[in-house]
Amino acid sequence: MKKLFLIASLALLMTLAAVTPALASSADDNCRHMLVNKQHLLDSDYVPSSLTPLSNYMAAGGNVTMTAEAAAAIGEMVDAMAAEGLTDIYGQSGYRSYATQKMLNDNKILYYRNLGYSYEHAVELACTVVAAPGASEHQSGLAIDFTTSANGSSLTDSFGTTPVGQWLAANSWKYGFILRYPADKTEITGYIYEPWHFRYVGEPHAEYMYKNDLCLEEYYALLQEEGIITYTTEAGVSYAVRFDQYNNSTNLPADELISVSRAYADSELGFIITTTVPQIELFDITGHWAEAYIRNLTSLGVITGYTDNTFRPEKNISRAEMVSLIYRTYLLLHPNEAGMTDLGLPQYPPVVTESPFIDVPDGAYYLDALLTLQSKDMIAPGLIQNNADGTASFLPEQNALRREVAQSLAPLFTALPDLPSSGIVLKDMVEADPELQAAVQLLVDAGVVTGNASGNFMPDEDITRAEVSTMLDRILTFFGYESENN
Ligand SMILES: [Zn+2]
Fold this sequence. Notes:
By secondary structure, the chain is α+β, with helices and mostly antiparallel strands. The model is unreliable at 1-25 (pLDDT under 50). The chain contains 16 helices and twelve strands. A four-stranded antiparallel sheet has the order 3-4-6-5. A four-stranded antiparallel sheet has the order 7-8-10-9. Strands 1-2 form a two-stranded antiparallel sheet. Bound molecules: zinc ion.
């Protein structure tokens, strides 16, 4: 599934410039969030299109350039520093071409070869000091190395103790920059502490990373995991930042859209879409493939979303969320057990306060759901663990697996006579455990599960909130609930 999206996103990438003309002042803005590190290399022919002399904005080397947007932001930042009396700052190194980086790296390899190291060892040592070609953030035109005359115009740790070094570390986020290689993140970034190296990412990303103590790699990993985060800046502007495997920005209202840019998170190519926060319920499902299913479940009271008005459809569902959604679906199908409201929706019973599970707090929002489903034999094998000391655990925050969802849903159909066979058998179910096989086949025959593009169920994979919602809506449709997706 993910592979498919990757191909789709590559195709969309080609048309990105065409679909976002209003918000991008140059093609470089679409690349503002590129992740460049030892795992994510830039192509040898990547050259930013808006390279601008940095000397237009500050004291800098004559051949130092950056993207137009980053250079202008540096101009604002340097002006603010000057207003505070900090003027001893120099733009030492900005955009660096692939060829220049290769030459620097080759020279370093030669240096170690001359010291008697083997070629492989020399390459390894060289790359710890000078990034390999393609692995330098300087090729993006978004990175800058500053120096001061006070620390001898050299790129050393002492820059971090100079007044400008300290000012930049504490304030550069206000101008869209991050200290790219902090001292306590070297294991994650793969680079030593570089107090002189700053990277442009823009608003509100720089502020979010600064306030939450995240480096770029951590920020993208968080975005990929959550699918969307919302954030209100110190200036009082609320933003929603999405990581999307394919560019869904065309589905969003133009007046909310701020930027769309390419990014890599982990190993996936995707888009970072920045918007203001719209005043509509579950705003992040607008244009999502599962929107109709999710809206239908919302109207039935099965789904309520998160407190920041997001649904996070691409986020993997947790065990706690899974039992909660399945329970609400169960109550819709068994109204005599629920006690209906005037609107014909289930009246959820009061929360059980005392938890019998060591890892489920008393009064947890999913505790009723868990206990009821357990009493109905609707909890997949393995979800509840009976420990040797007589206690039980549930691991509520752990991601639910596809087989766990299937085996918790299949019992909804047990009271029915055998379904007519769909004639579809998912390939990886042929040799599967008989109980799992029966559960999945039931859902396939009921039209709830269709399998992936290659005809497999992938029982041990995580499953997204959108995918589970789709299954639940199809179950409600199967049992005769009005659906917009028939
Ligand atoms: Zn640098």
